[in-house]
Amino acid sequence: MTGGLATDAEARPDRPDGTAPPPDRGRDKAGPGALATMVRLTSGHRPAVAAATGLTLAGSALGLAQPLVARRIVDAAGQGGLLWPVLLLVGLFAGEAVTGAVGRFLLERMGEGVIRTLRHGLVSHLLRLEMRTYGEHRSADLISRVTTDTTVVREATAQAVVDMVTGCLVSAGALALMAWLDPVLLLLVAVTLAAAAAVVACLVSGLRSAAEHAQGAVGTLAADLERALGALPMVRAHCAEAREAERIGTRIDAAYRTGVRTAKLSAVMNSAAELAIQGSFLVVLVIGGLRVGDAGSLGNLVAFLLYASYLVVPLSSVFHAVGLVQRGMGAYRRIDQALRLPQEPAGRTRPPAPAPVRRPAGALTLRDVHFGYRPGRPVLRGVSLSVPHHGQIALVGRSGAGKTTIFSLAARFYEPQEGVLLFDGRPAPEMTRRECRERIALVDQNTHVVHGTLWDNITYAVPGADAAEVDRVVRLTNLTDVVERLPGGLACNLGERGATLSGGERQRVALARALLTRPSLLLLDEPTSHLDAINEAALSKVMRDIAGECALLVIAHRLSTVQNADRIYVLDAGRVIACGTHLELLRRSAAYRELAHAQTLRGTGPDSGSVE
């Protein structure tokens, strides 16, 4: 979605309209702030987190007991009675493995639950954004925040939070036991670990920034690729494959550079941690070996070495978790930005007024409506018109006159800056958007066909429609031949964007979808633009029948459609400059005669030309 029906001149802003962005809450300070954000995301899964943490700590406690049993075995070597210590050691190993596996499963399931909740909220929010917001953000980049960014957050919530907590606790326990065994060796270990911690602290903020830029580069790449694939026929027709590949290639290179920077910082952090742990292990081995016999037993040295090696896993998990949290915060900041984009208000913009004694007879009325997509660039300048409950009303005018913008306002995609719209005499601000949209059906210029079957597309607005209703609209829109031609008929999959249908067939599918809702007001934007003469004549008859049942507002680009209208409004530069029937306007309106004359000059004739 990129702006709905905003296709008139000055319709779609190329960039934000100058309003200040929402306050940036995403740049929490590294460390406690980032960890607190990850913990907050798990707020609905606290029992699972507690169980996983308890199991992880229990497994770690079993692991911490293993060096003490090993020391007893070493010291008692050659004295017999080793069976029970050996069996105890095996039991400790098995218990640690089981508790660790169950705890890890609970964490992974919790992570999936967190992201499911986050994705549900994000998708629901994106589908309800203000229409102008879609013109300011690329849809593929928004999609990447639902897919790629949430995956990064899942890794952080499922692993980093518990790993940091348990890793710190287990490391503290191991260090305490090492201090009990040999304080001097522990001091040497502490020095090497402090050096590694200093390196990690220096790199933390840079890693988060690099990760955020990497996620943004991937989102931009997805947006550019979607742009090319969405217009592939145009790309092929203009032999632009190489140019598109080169342009997208620059996005790939940018993603590569940001990814390499992130990898470089992660590599330095991980290497610093590994070198510190391995270095401390070697120091203990050399210094401790020299001190055996003078300051301690061989069993003590073995136990100390086992604890030093045991530190590798929890300390590595802590350092790795720090990196994961920073990458997760970079991704979550992009998600948070999307969640703070302005939504379309769900309720009324003002409370209902007391019902008037007599309401104006009109399905839709515009009273002195002013509107512009950007400040200082008006599209509509005081438009007033009325659509009766029955009959066909047409809007004509040059491109950019404001015709499609009137449809956008009627569908409540935007709100007028001045003036008011009334539905059945009720001011639109006193109604919810849902109440307004339930009265209308819309067929716009894009004739959207979604991936799915022909049945899915026709019944999109009325999923519970029965076969008789679907057959009615298929016959009304002259789609019977399409149903018979397609393999599987109504069950045929139409492909991406209805690739198996012609432009006229897609338009008729969109018309059938709209008619199935039996609307009070039917909005048709260029209903015959893709139809041949036979289908156009059939549609004109359908429109006459529909006009007897509901209100029909048409943006007419062909005089064959215009001349059948009960009333025609001529727009120019955002104003209504004339109103009447086809014959009346030919006599009274110079602008209308000019539009009709232009068709004649193009050789189309007054019955089949286009009023632009």
Concise overview:
The protein is an alpha/beta fold. The protein has 20 helices and ten strands. α2 runs antiparallel to α3 (83-126) and α6 runs parallel beside α10 (312-339).
CATH architecture title of the largest domain: Up-down Bundle
- Euclidean distance between termini CA atoms: 25 Å
Under CATH at level 1, the class of the largest domain stands as Mainly Alpha
Summarize the helix and strand pattern as letters.
HHHHHHHHHHEEEHEEHEHHHHEHEHEEHH
Domain ABC transporter: 364-598
Subcellular location: Cell membrane
GO molecular function: ATP binding
Region (Disordered): 1-32
Name a few traits of the molecule.
single chain; 10 strands; ABC transporter transmembrane region fold; 612 residues; disordered N terminus; transmembrane helix; 20 helices; AAA+_ATPase; Rossmann fold; disordered C terminus; 3 domains; six-stranded mixed sheet; 59% helix; alpha/beta; four-stranded antiparallel sheet; nucleotide-binding
Q: What would you say this structure looks like, in words?
A:
This protein is α/β, with parallel strands linked by helices and 612 residues long. It folds into three domains: 1-22 and 360-439 and 519-612, Rossmann fold, CATH 3.40.50; 32-339, Up-down Bundle (ABC transporter transmembrane region fold), CATH 1.20.1560.10; 449-505, no CATH class. The chain has 20 helices and ten strands. The chain has helices spanning 32-41, 46-75, 83-126, 131-134, 139-181, 183-230, 232-237, 241-291, 298-310, 312-339, 403-410, 433-437, 454-458, 467-476, 480-485, 503-516, 533-547, 559-562, 582-588, 590-601; strands at residues 364-374, 377-387, 391-397, 418-423, 426-427, 440-443, 521-525, 551-555, 567-572, 575-580. A six-stranded mixed sheet has the order 6-7-8-3-9-10, sandwiched between helices. A four-stranded antiparallel sheet has the order 2-1-4-5. Helix 1 (32-41) crosses helix 5, helix 2 (46-75) packs parallel to helix 5 and helix 8 packs antiparallel against helix 10 (312-339). It is elongated, with a radius of gyration of 35 Å.
